[in-house]
Fold these 4 entries.
Entry 1:
Amino acid sequence: MKTSVCLLALVAVVAAEVYFTEEFNDDSWEQRWVQSKHKEDYGEFKLSAGKYFGVESRDQGIKTSQDAKFYSRAAKFDKEFSNKGKSVVIQYTVKHEQGIDCGGGYVKVMRSDADLADFHGETPYNVMFGPDICGSTRRVHVILNYKGKNHLIKKEINCKLDELTHLYTLILNSDNTYDVKIDGKSVQSGSIEEDWDLLPAKKIKDPDAKKPEDWDEREYIDDAEDTKPEDWEKPEHIPDPDAKKPEDWDDEMDGEWEPPMIDNPEYKGDWKPKQIKNPAYKGKWIHPEIENPEYTPDDELYLYENWGAIGFDLWQVKSGTIFDNVIVTDSIQQAEDHAAETFDKLKVDEEEKKAAEDAIARAAQEEALKKQEAEEAEQQDEEEAAKEEEEGHDEL
């Protein structure tokens, strides 16, 4: 039995495939990533490890370098593949080192026959995944193409807003489930059918059903036996009984004097009969539902028969985003291993360097504050000395 389990595990490892990786370790990336010619003025990606890094060649990626530009570059996989009967994992890192205010940080994964030289916003894709920040929009997009139409996930997934590197992972499983991870931790998961409107609703309101005319949805009604008290009607405002006509009031010049109006303390407001339980109350009428004849289940919502290219097609107001450590595989373990060799190591170096820089900045701030306090104290001493000297002259 143990032998069988070991053999199965070995087969699983052997069967795992990595279809695409890119770490942008040197200038050769430009030969693999095609620059779109759809527009003439695309922004330029440049190699950069950014402000914080450990090993430059390991931690560098491609960085958006021009403000207020569209960017569009894509690369083909070594071979196309189908994810039938297995998971597909899309993973990469993003660093918005510029403190992004409006711009995309997502990838699009396409078929192998995508025209990368004409890659643009309307180019068909299987999946669009990653962060998008612009004003109040600060979310992780997960858009699935189904039968030629793009569908955005119905759940809100918040993205990271700081200036450090973050790892974004999307897993589509063959049981029609998904998992979105940020920095290796799941932030949203569930059923593809439930969390996207790919299929018509299973049930719809019965078009032949109508609420009965005598259906009473009023839980409470006016008490027919309740009557308004005879002394209820009081004016809301009355003349101020304590007001007196001013002595200098001239009726001929000022007109006839009238006391000012005040709130009537005996005013009770509009009378309404008390409420009682409605004996005819039947509850809120619920429209009956029937099976939707247009609904057909699909056990392969996760499936794309052809994967073969990946690209960045985005707009940025302020440039400075760095993309790196791209991997597309059918193995969650392979994706985790890749993150351990790239993102995890960068994260440690990045956090240490930022912490050191923050410490230096705090020390400089404290020193500046001490200097300011010393200058203010010195100025105060000088002012007090000058005041004492002036008082001495006055005494003489």
Entry 2:
Amino acid sequence: MTAADAPLPGTLQVWSDIACPWASLAVYRLRAARERLGLELDVRVDHRAFPLELANGRPVPPLADEAVQVLALEPGFGVRPWSGEHGEWPGSFLDALGAVSAAKDERVGGLAASEALDWALRRALFVSSRPVGTAQEVLAVAREVPEVDADALAGLLDAGREAVRRDFGLVGELGIEGSPHVLLSDGTSVFNPGIGDDGSDDPGVWDELLRRALAPEG
């Protein structure tokens, strides 16, 4: 791991796959807690890739039905069943993950653009049934995100895909258990925050994680 890979103070590093319903639940709750605490300008989100297809060695299976159940925990997300209107469920999300990584480039919009694109892709998938597995559909979503320069992003998708594979190469070293997993600069490392193996659910964990991200080191 290089210094560039380490979480920075004031940043929540979120490792996940856009296809993962539990990750979208986590991101929704993170964003809601940050807004409620008035920390939108103080705590940023650095999205890193935990590609399920590389972890499992096979295409991502349809997760739309699971998403309806999982995201029903937060009605504000607005999850809907997969309509099939725009196509079949995509088996690969490397282009989507790569675009989120590439959007961190200042020519595209930086970390704010990356976070906005990640959120837009999750909602496109689980609310609008858009098959965001192709570069074409990813860029179509990107053009709807004000923070993103989609033309600049189009030229960086190859680099983004390389970044996804590099991220995946770090998961063992960093102890990333799956999607979602949160790292903070103080050493906090949490898999699927608030969700217990016993079925317990504590959304309030995000308040504490945000406060830890905000606190100065030392």
Entry 3:
Amino acid sequence: MSEQHLITLTVNGHDHELLVAARRTLVDAIRHDLRLTGTHVGCEHGVCGACTILVDGAPARACLMFAVQAEGRDIRTVESLGSPEAPNDLQRAFSEHHALQCGFCTPGFLMLAEGFLTEHPHATKSEIRAAVSANLCRCTGYQPIVEAVDDCARKRRCAPGPAAAPSATQAADTTTPAGPARAAADPGHGQPDTPRSP
């Protein structure tokens, strides 16, 4: 029996206490213990970036961290960005620029871009291209992703207030987007939660 540890962490603004095995990865704790399945598991070697989350505001590979390493940390997953009814500005940009196809890698790209734009609000398109190259996508060819992130960055710079928050009209609109819009706003949609060993 693996040694168990009681940890406390903040995920998407909510405090949690979890009893986890010493070898349990953070991505498993997020997906299976907290049931936040928007964070996807790909290579499990820190290469593909599908599991990218924000840890204390910085992008991190959740498959490379143990859950015990998240003790006292502030974690943000893709669920923190928006919802199918009210996607945030970055999710809308991904939909508008067709920056996703199968959608499996999209949560990782969204969180990578969110962290990058927070640190580099005036990033050039070349800098954005270099940043997103850290994650792998087999479908889009990357250019739509670069265009989406660049468009979002430009709109945020021009916005008088916090651009990432949905407007009152968008928050009130309960129409569920279809196709790419839904996939960008609801990255867990269509992705089964396959049990994995602890």
Entry 4:
Amino acid sequence: MNRTFTFLPPLLGGAALIALIAWFLPSWNFVLAIGLAKGLPVLGLVLLMRGGLVSFGQGLYYALGGYTVGLASQYFGLKDAAALLVISAIGSALVAFVVGLLLSRYRDIFFAMLTLALSMLLYGILVKSTELGGTDGFNVHGITLFGIPLTGADRMNGLLLLIAVCVLGAINLGLFGATAFGRLLAGVRDNEIRVEYLGASADRAVLIAYVLAAVMAALGGAMSGIIVGHIDPEMAFWATSGEFVVIAILAGTGGVLAPFVAAVVLEVVRSFAYQYAPNTWQLVLGLIILALILFLPQGLSGLVRRGPRAVNAGEKS
């Protein structure tokens, strides 16, 4: 098999497994959906991390995707999920392209702080805008896919759509990683000067990666708004962007499946922690995250790398 598509079998297998779990355990549909929706912005964030960049402002595009769905459905009567997802992706890509022209010139802490500042700027606008619901946000109702309901008793349909969006997003970013610009990201992280000496543009590679990451975050926000049925300014708050960074650290940068696994694992752990330790669930969740980081410094994707190395070591011995 072409090495470009080696991620496809585990990706499709993981998607099928999530669908089976949701089918036989419908009470977990909402938790799985929230985890997968957060996995999309984390997938884009992992792409940026391959270039040595950490964005603390992915909540900006997460909120843009959610508010695009809410505004288009409430004020323009657009209820089809396919059209809403396309509009969210295009709108976020245009915003990210304009913003990325500035951000692509910065690296390290400057890049991180600028992304955080832009996200908090949107948060401030949303909180102060009574027309957009202010701090309470507003509800999203009646979203369908070609006439098929996606919420309420038909939430399974929404989860299946979300799984399809996650698979397509992972495939696109996996294929991008095999392109010239995708491979340049590692060079930007390791030695940007050498990249420029080779005649390639590091800023252009960062710009493309930033736009792709923004589209992933917007799709996640759009699907979150559809499934949850509510959007609010917290989607753009720094804590939301920080959670994406934590999940990205848990996932590692080794593959396109790990961000979704890490996001779902975190949501499941959060649910159990809140259920069995309602007064100290944040402490329990923090301890579990700390343990995962200590024992899996390369993230969940490090488990995949460790397996083949152990096999090879056994064969040599």
